[in-house]
Every structure is written in C-alpha cells, then in structure tokens.
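ARCHIVE CARD
Drawer: 12
Card no.: 0347
Subject: one protein chain, sequence and derived structure
Cross-reference: see card 0346
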Amino acid sequence: MRSSSLRELDILHAIDDGEMVTKRDLAHRLGIAGRLADRYIKQLVAKGLLKVKTAPARRMLYWLTPKGFAEKARLSYEFLTYTYKMYNQCHRLASNMLRRLAEKEAVRRVVFYGAEPPAEVVAVSLPENGIELVAVADEEHKGEKCAGCTVLPIDALDELDFDRIIFTKFSKRDDVILRKLLQTKGEVVNIMEPEPPANEDE
C-alpha cells in the first residue's frame, strides 16, 4: 500500500463521521506540520473527498463528502488486506529464523529490543519453536506493555539471563547506534533483516 494512500486514510479517519474539523485539528491529530497538512487537505478537496467551509476567525472547516466516505471504506479494506499479508509474511520469516536459532544454536531464552508491532508478531512464533520471551526492552517505550511484558530500559538486561537479543524495531534513524550498544549486552539477531541462505557447497 502506498504511503500516500496511508496518509489519505489517516486524514479521512481523523475526520469523525459528521464532525467538521479545522486544519489545525488535523495537523495535531496526525502529528504533522500545518503546511504539510494543508497540502494533503487541498489534494483531498480537489479529489472531491472533503468539503471546506469558512468559519469565524478566518478558520476553515473540513468534513467528508459521500465520495470521501466511500474512499475511506475502500482504503480501509485495502489497508486491512495489506496488513494481513504483511503479518503473514513477517510471521513466516520470524518463525523460520527462530526455528534455526532453536535447532542449530540451542537458543531457548530471548529478549526483544523494540516495543513495536514486529515484537508482537515475533512473540506469536516463540512457543511453536520452544523459545521463551524473558523481557522486552526499549528506551523509547519504557513502562509500556508489549508482547505481554512491561517494557524495560536497556540497562535492565544486565540482570537477566538470556541467549539472544532479538532486534524488533522498524525505526532506522538510530538502529546502528542501538545495535552497537546491544552488542555489549549479548548477541543480537535482527528479525527485520533475515540472513541470506547459506551456500549449499559450504
């Protein structure tokens, strides 16, 4: 699913049924700059998905048109289909990697670094491979819940007994630094970057 379609879906969902909202409201709900929100809104108005009305204090109010409601439903279905396919693919890749860790490296206890959606998917694959999740760590989500665990700071890993750290973050802006740091805590396996197949001649 294209990122532009996801952004359109975000905006259409941000406008509740029958509720008129301002550009500032949308920018706040979506966590984007007002100028960027304005660009997206103009595109949706041009497509006939949103209506605009001038309000007091020089504000502009926006709400969905019937075409907008239909497009929101279509994009929602497309997103659910895309998400289901991605979940299955992620689950398959994770299960294959975990099976290799369990069978070839006798890994039985792991911790996750990354309290993000991949962690929940990978956690589903652990029991079928006889692997226990000891903890989930993530500096950005300390104290939150993920995969049935309360997310810990990275230094808490020093007190735990585990065989591998499974890297389960989508974020790329700091993964090099994080992975170097994690190397001091134990061996890291990046579930987001499966290893290439082994050479059969070796």
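Annotation on reverse: Residues 3-64 form a domain with the Arc Repressor Mutant, subunit A fold (CATH 1.10.10.10). Residues 66-105 form the longest helix (40 residues).
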